[in-house]
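Thread: quick sanity check before group meeting

JM: Hey all, I'm pulling together slides for Thursday and realized we never actually wrote out the predicted structure for the chain we discussed last week. Dropping the sequence here so it's in one place. If anyone has concerns about the input, flag it before I start.
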Amino acid sequence: MRYLMGPAIIGAAMLAAPPAQAEKVSFGASLPLTGGLATNGQKHKEGYDLCVELINKSGGLLGEPATLVSSDNQSVNETGQAQIERLINQDKVSVLLGTFSSRITFAQSSVAEQNKRVYPIPSGVALQIYERGYHYLFNFQPNAAEYLGKSYAGLMKDLVKPDQMPKTAAVVWADDFYANAAVAGLTGDKREIAGTDKVIDLAPGALADSGIEVVLKQQWPEEGFSDWITLANTVKQTGAELVVGFTASPDEAIQLIRAFKTIAYQPKVAIMGQGTQAEFHE
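JM (edit): ok, ran it. Output follows.
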């Protein structure tokens, strides 16, 4: 896996683009603007729009205004994959921009790799993406999903006194590409890397490393889950001092926290896989 940060990614991506496109720079992105991942997809689109606007306010690229070609993959892997193929072969964009979610990134990055096009990844951190031997991926996040638990453990160690550290944890999560990866690292599961013979053993897991006992592991379906009160009560009955909730979307995170509030469950620590969005705080 290779890393490249900041504006340098634009230059690297342009160098990897076909020479015929050098006179005018166009960015291309397939994003989940509708469907279950729409909230985050729309925020990515707003960020890309702002990026192009700022570039053009500064004089554009190669003496020309930059443009953004974007499409809605409706939160569907296959649609996102087809749209990346179209951006490369029909729209002939100069630079690809990554999408939201590890599962859509997994599909799109295969197309980019086949076409030897740089694929910058703003929101896809599952090891499934990076352990396939690809050469054109650039990740902007600090760590793979499977190792996020180490960051959480370090944060708690810095902020919580040793005698106040949680002793037990309930881990609940969506059957989602990213959430499954993060939970594997927290609880010490093995991860088989699709398309390879690699198996990564994450035992004993970040929680066990921190002396925290997992008293509940419960997954809910990726689509259509609504029994949040029952889930919240199941968590409450364990008496877990730490709750880890990895959701597929901000909407799920909102529903889970609302359910905890409804049943008056207040753990010492709650770690959520979503929650940086304004919708969650409101």
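AS: nice. The two ends are 37 Å apart (CA to CA). The chain has eleven helices and eleven strands.
JM: adding both to the slides.
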